[in-house]
Amino acid sequence: MEDVYIIGAGIHPFGRTDGRSGRDQGVYAVRQAMADAGIDWTDVGCAYGGSAAAGSADIMVNELGLTGLPFINVANGCATGGSALASARNAIAAGEFDVALAVGFDKHPRGAFNAKPREYGLPEWYGQTGMMLTTQFFALKIQRYMQLHGISRETLGRVAEKAFRNGVHADHAWRRSPVDLETILNSPMVNDPLTKYMFCAPAEGAVALILASGKKVRELGADAVRIASVAVRTRPPGSFEVFAPSVDIDNGGKPTILASKAAFEQAGIGPEDISVAQLQDTESGAEIMHMAENGFCKDGDQEQWLREGRTEVTGKLPVNTDGGCLACGEPIGASGLRQVYENTVQLRGRGGGRQVPGSPKTAYSHVYGAPGLSGVCILER
Amino acid sequence: MTQLLQPIAENLWTNEAEPALLGGRLPNGKIVFPYPSGDAAEGVEPYRLSRKGTLWSWTRQDFQPKEPFEGPEPFQPYLLGYVELPGEVIVETRIVDCVLEDLKLGMPMEFVVAPFDATRATYAFRPEKA
Question: Which parts of the sequence belong to the ChsH2 C-terminal OB-fold domain (chain B) (predicted)?
Answer without folding.
Answer: 48-112
